[in-house]
Recover the amino acids of this structure.
């Protein structure tokens, strides 16, 4: 008996090939399952269980004790606040991903032509390192309505004031009993040609007077010539006290730069501006009585800028903050796809006489379509879940005007509504809206791997 025969008798017959392969695969699957089990356990505890619990909770009332069926789902579509949240979420989904994808594409193409491309990419990508909480605080301050605090309104006011002059006396008002105020905010009195008139004003601090202002007393002492109407606009306040109301005292200052009109029969017969001592005069007027008027433009409030966080602009303003954070992300992903494009196709197009715009529109964009799609869908998923920026940037009075589904879900559940049944229904709605985009993105990744 040979050694081979003895070995076969001791070890027994070997299993067939297919059976041995199945055992090996089962063993590999078992080992893989053991390694994956902790992750699956955490996924179930942190994701699957909360989802299932929220679905079940959405069928109960606010107390969680009475089953209401689909009542929460039908009720949320009758709630004006929820409908506004759905509308705002739709605006976010349509506007933000499209703008980010477009900006990322443009910047990725332009950065390739910049000498310091890496530094430029790093600069644009830096906002991604800032938390949404910090970014919300930054933009809450940037959007502040006070030009002394909000940098955007400071810039807008500076540009406005550079082209449009503002009133030097926004707090001024006429001395009651001596001047009459019209509904539009202007002040008036009456006078006749050949005479003089004084227009006493109050409400201006001596420190706010223009540096060119001089005492009004000498001008008030001048007499009008025949056919002339003369007068003086002055601050009816004597520094240090004393003086008489309605009378120009030696220490009282004129108000320079004020517009004065002579009106007769509803028509403006003359218009002039006061001098440094507040004096003015009209010559060449027809004899008779006139209304001497200080138009409302003299008392216009200074331009305060744009109400960025008002009901009309709060959502675009928050989207602007979101763009600041995510533009770098979009640019880097699209830039990675752009660097993988076949350069021979681009060079061949240039040799055929195509200009840069034609190459961009007919070659670069079509070849980047898979990358652009992935970026767009990823941003859609992210936008649907936006919460931090909306909650932090939007002030309390306009919180409802800026609310999206995520913030509305929190407000209804924990922010004062205390209705976790309705909040769970909103969470389920948000999940149903996100799932199609997630499935689409997963399929795109699988197709790209194949």
């Amino acid at each position: 008996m040979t050694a081979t025969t003895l070995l076969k008798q001791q070890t027994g017959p070997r299993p067939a090939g297919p059976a041995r392969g199945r055992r090996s695969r089962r063993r590999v699957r078992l080992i893989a399952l053991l390694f994956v089990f902790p992750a699956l356990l955490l996924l179930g505890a942190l994701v699957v269980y909360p989802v299932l619990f929220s679905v079940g909770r959405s069928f109960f009332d606010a107390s969680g004790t009475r089953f209401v069926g689909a009542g929460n789902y039908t009720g949320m579509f009758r709630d004006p606040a929820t409908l506004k949240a759905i509308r705002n979420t739709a605006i976010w989904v349509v506007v933000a991903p499209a703008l980010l994808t477009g900006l990322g594409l443009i910047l990725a193409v332009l950065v390739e032509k910049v000498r310091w491309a890496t530094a430029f990419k790093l600069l644009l990508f830096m906002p991604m390192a800032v938390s949404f909480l910090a970014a919300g605080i930054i933009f809450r301050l940037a959007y502040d309505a006070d030009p002394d605090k909000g940098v955007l309104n400071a810039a807008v006011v500076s540009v406005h004031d550079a082209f449009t002059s503002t009133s030097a006396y926004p707090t001024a008002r006429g001395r009651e009993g001596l001047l009459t105020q019209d509904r539009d905010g202007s002040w008036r009195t009456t006078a006749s040609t050949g005479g003089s008139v004084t227009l006493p004003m109050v409400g201006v601090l001596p420190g706010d007077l223009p540096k060119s202002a001089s005492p009004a007393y000498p001008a008030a002492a001048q007499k009008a010539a025949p056919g002339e109407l003369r007068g003086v606009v002055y601050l009816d306040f004597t520094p240090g006290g004393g003086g008489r109301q309605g009378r120009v005292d030696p220490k009282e200052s004129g108000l320079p730069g004020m517009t004065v009109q002579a009106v007769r029969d509803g028509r403006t017969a003359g218009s002039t501006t006061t001098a440094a001592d507040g004096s003015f005069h009209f010559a060449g007027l027809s004899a008779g009585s006139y209304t001497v008027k200080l138009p409302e433009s003299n008392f216009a409030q200074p331009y305060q800028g744009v109400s960025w966080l008002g009901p009309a602009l709060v959502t675009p303003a928050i989207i602007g903050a979101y763009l600041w954070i995510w533009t770098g992300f979009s640019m880097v992903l699209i830039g990675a796809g752009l660097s993988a494009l076949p350069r021979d196709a681009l060079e061949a197009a240039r040799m055929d006489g195509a200009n840069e715009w034609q190459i961009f529109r007919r070659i670069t964009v079509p070849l980047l379509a898979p990358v652009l799609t992935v970026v767009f869908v990823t941003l859609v998923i992210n936008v649907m879940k936006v919460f931090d920026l909306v909650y932090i940037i939007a002030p309390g009075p306009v919180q409802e005007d800026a609310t999206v589904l995520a913030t509305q879900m929190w407000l209804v559940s924990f922010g004062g509504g205390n209705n976790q049944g309705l909040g769970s229904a909103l969470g389920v709605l948000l999940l149903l809206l996100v799932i199609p985009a997630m499935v689409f993105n997963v399929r795109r990744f699988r197709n790209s791997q194949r």
